[in-house]
Amino acid sequence: MHTDLVAALDIGGTKIAGALVDGQGRILVRTQRATPAQEDGETVMRAVEAVLGELAAGPLWGRATALGIGSAGPVDASAGTVSPVNVPGWRDYPLVRRVRAVTGGLPVELIGDGVAITAAEHWQGAARGHDNALCMVVSTGVGGGLVLNGRLHPGPTGNAGHIGHISVDLDGDPCPCGGRGCVERLASGPNIARRAIEAGWLPGPDGDTSAEAVAAAARAGDPVAVASFERAAQALAAGIAATANLVEIDIAVVGGGVAKAGDVLFTPLHKALGDYATLSFVQRLTVTPAQMGTDAGLVGAAAAALARRPDATAAGV
Question: What PROSITE patterns does the record tag this protein with (predicted)?
């Protein structure tokens, strides 16, 4: 076993997490800061530097041979820049160059957060042992990533597998991305809740209008809440089936906050998948919940860093 470690950063609109991770995917050291998402770009960078500084202050830092970054997107791995939708101070921000400068020139691997979660699920989670997989994150947005022929497939800029912006309803709602009828516009948490409210769903006395509240109402049998989740499941099924037809995946892993709804989502999702994944070569496609939880971004960023090393100890990442 290789004794060296990799450093990992998981950068989102809420938190910036950092870790040192070994070749088995174990997190040995971790730290995090809140993301000052509404501040200017330099203030956000100072939070990243603080996380890296805490990692570097520990005794294990000297063994880190590379650093992986999973960031909210869009990212551009070819340019080393990030433009997270929910961090307006960062637009084409040269994150890779800045992180290299802070870490004394460690090799840095940048991927989008959906690709990072895919790397984690393939290395240690629900897609382990599958050579062709789609992993999805269904939460405030809908993101994802692909494993093809046993390897992570981030694409040239690190955004491949971004299933949230496949159009599944040609005459559907305009999506903020500029498209129309995107999976995200139908299946993200805020859009599940929006559609339920527009269709007449009434929140309970606590006034909670989150997708979680809609899921609870659906579990209790509220027909409007059930219908909103069924529509989301139909959109996800159409996107998953389109992906399977295109690149022959045999498993789709679904994580993120909306997936926590459990059977309220997965029962109609399995049913709808049967309606869309009809060709012979995609009929055995399975859909399963993600396993990696909140550490997926860090573990996936580490997997991407390990995969880039000449001795690539992380099997199959």
Answer: ROK (PS01125)
